[in-house]
Every structure is written in C-alpha cells, then in structure tokens.
Hints:
By secondary structure, this protein is α+β, with helices and mostly antiparallel strands. It has 16 helices and 18 strands. A hairpin with a 5-residue loop joins β9 and β10.
Amino acid sequence: MSESLRALPRSYMLDRATQLRSWDIIVVGGGCIGLATALDASARGYRTLLVERGDFTSGTSSRSTKLIHGGVRYLRQGQIGLVYRALDERRRLRANAPHLVRSLPLLVPAYRWWERPWYGLGLKLYDALALGRNLGSSRLVSRRESLKHLSTLHSHHLRGGVLFYDGQFDDARLGWAFIRTAANLGCVALNYAEVVGLVEARGKVKGVEVRDLLGGNEWVARGAVVVNAAGPFADSLRRMDEPRLAPSVMLSRGVHIVVSNAFLPGRTALLVPSTDDGRILFAIPWHGHVLIGTTDIPVEEPSQEPIPSAAEVDYLIDHAGGYLTRTIRRADILSAWAGLRGLTASGPDQDTAALSRDHSVSVSRRGLVTVTGGKWTTCRKVAQDAVGRAAEVGRLSSAHSVTARLRLHGYSTRRDILDPWRMYGSDAEAIRQLEAEDERLTRLMHPSLPYRLSQAAWAAKSEMAVQLDDVLARRTRALFLNARAAVAAAPAVARVMARELGHGDDWVEEQVRAFNALARGYLPE
Length: 525
C-alpha cells in the first residue's frame, strides 16, 4: 500500500483479507502487542494478516495510564533489567513518533524527612539506567518550587520533592499509527473479525477460521504460523489448541477516573510511589483534563467491557484526597473506566501488583506461538522477539527486525501543530482540507470536548472507524475524557459518520442507542 493513499476504509481491508488466503504470519489480537507484532512482521517483508474481534485497541490497550516509561515502581521491586530495557524503548518510541510521545514532568512529593533524599537517589538511578537518553534530568526541589509546579498539592508538612521526566502519549492514537504504518508496508489488519477456530495441517496449527462480525461471512486464512497476541484473552485461543491447558495469564484490573484540570492545574503530574497501602498513585494532565489512577485488583475472568467497582472509585477518590487540596466528589468525575492487564502467570502467587510486567513467548506442541505480558513502552521489543520466534516455527526466510528506527505514520517534528491536530502529525493538513470543503465540520463535537466533527469524518473515511464508539472512544478520546459530553455529542458524530459510510437514519439511531448503553459504564453511580 502506498504512503500517499489517504483513504483507508474497512471495506478495503475486508476485501484483501478474504481474497488473499495464504499468509506468512497471522496475528490474532489488535492490542498493543498484536499491532506491534504485525508491524514488525510486515516491516521484515512477511505477508501478514492481523484480525481483532473488536475494534483495534478496544480493550486494555486504550485504558493505560498514558505513560511511556521505564517504570519507577519496578526499581522498588528490583526489576532493573526490565527498567533498563523499557527506558531504551522509551527513547526509540519518542524518536519514531515525536507527534505522539512527549516529555512529561512528574513531581514526587516528600512529607517525611527521609523521602526527598530516598526518592532522589532512586530517580538518579532511573536517570543512570537511561544512559544519557533522558527526557530531562531529575532533581530535588524545594517546598516552594513543589507548590509552584503543583499548586493544589497539600502543603501541610510538605518538605519539597523530586522532579523527574517521563514520556506521555495517547495509547489508542499510537495504536492507529502502528496499524497505518503496517498497512503502508502491506499488512492487512481487520477489526471486528473473530477467530472461531484453528486450522490444522499435518498436526500443526496452520491457519484460522475467521468470522466477519459485521457482515457475518466466514472464511479460512492459512498461514505458515499463527501468533496469539490476544492479551487478557490469550488463554481462550490457547484452549482451542490445547483444551486442557492450565491458565498462562493472570488478570489484574486497573481503574482510572478523570476530573477537570481545576483539581491539578498546569503541565506537571503527581506521582506518589507508595501510598499508605503500598500502591502507586498518579494524577496526570491529559488532553486538558486530569487522569487519576490506578488500582491493581486480581480478576478471575476477562470481559470485553470491565466496569470500575464502587470500591475502586472510592479508593482513588480517597487517596487523591490525601494529596490534593480540593476534595473530589463523585459528581466531579467526568469518566471512570477499567482495563485488564494480562500478566504472565508465575505459580500460585495471586499478588498481581508484584507480578512482573515483562513478557513471555511460548510455542505449543502444534506450533501456536503465544506472547503474553509486555506493555506499550516495550511492545516493539516484545514484537521483535515474537516475530523472531514465529519465523523459526513457520520456517520463514530469515529477516532482521527494522522497527528500532522505523518512523511511524504521521511522523512530524513540527512544534507549531497544537492539539487536537498534533496527534495526527503529517495527516493534520488533510483533516483541515475536509473542513475547507465543508464548513460544518469545523464545529466542536461538544463545548466540553477538544474535538471537531472533521475528526469524525476523517476517522470514518481514513481510519477504519465503522461504529460510533470507534470514533468517540478511540479515534478521539471523548468517552474517556467526559462520558456525559460524549453522549451529548453522539447524534451529531453519528450523522457525520453516516454520511461518510453511506448509512441512513436507522443506523444513526441504532448507534446512538448502543453508545448510550456503553457510556453508562463510564459514569460511576
């Protein structure tokens, strides 16, 4: 596919997926690991198909804490190697997608005499592990400077803090950059396509049976090797291969709440490395709002739309209240959402907070390659390992990974492109052209949201958005920022999508009804 091809409707990918029946690598799962795996495989020249039963990044990968980071908490756990590798990948990701990854200052407050030197020492180690690839050097700051950065921080007993820097991004938008870059390299990536069975040849897994969840058609895709990158749902696919298999993935639910930036004005984030129960707490400026998280609760079974419990929301409200001067009430919460982390199981230990976020690549007796663990920051390296192993299993011609220096679609170093256009990078002018052709598209989706109707038109035309929540939850982040505003914006956005996709009023009504039901799960009672 040519880089100059702007429009990328789902119908184009569906045609290619059903017409081309033979592949080198078939990737199952459209979260960060699956998308990175498909990108790595395509960049090596392998014929690659990716199928995702929902929308791309519709699960855990759109519900992260929005940080590209080495993991300060992992230093405390002694996972030095994981931190070192993550910091190296942080550098690569920022270099390859400067329009999506930026530097974020974070302040660790100190309320006891020993905290400032202790955290300062730990963050100097964090700097050292980056080997000069820092986004900014950490330093001790006074009480006065701490309050200058975080004006709503509790000042009673505050002794100062430590300022350091990490990367911030928009997870679902980065996911789209992966898809589009892979598509430019020939990958076929299809959303709303469910694997309903595995295909066997001579005792080995050599393909998948796929069902188009929108059209209902089924077909067989054959490949030299199948990679299971289904994240929290990885065991479901593994049991198609080995029905009596023991669980390989432990699930942990992380909850975030979003409030207005009045609770934490400015650009600096708050990081509490250890709350009174030993967990980590973030309060992060994001798209003009403040993101507060996260919990870490073991979960027995995966679900497509995990819902925050009242206890988890209360936990975040209570702990944020221990550090912010303005009390958060439930009525102040604009959106609350949960994601499931699929952690590599390691024995009977059920403490998910202590489990490693590192990854594992395994191969079944019949040759199904499964990758578990990993995170956005390290997904490129995870994918490199997964594709390398898959190439061996599938006996593909040897080809080295080239993603370490591969610029992602939209790459732009221009600093004059501001939100909401910054995350589109080099595509920003094409969206502005849509507005020039239709002035109605210049309108905001809602006064409380930073998005325009032109972004909905672009998503339907060029980003494979086919459902209303594709636009309001992932191509833009409206649902995650302000669920009530997203509900109010839904009819206008659906009408714009309908014009692009050729649907009528019945489709608009059905989509709005379905979206309203979905949005209720983002509003705590």
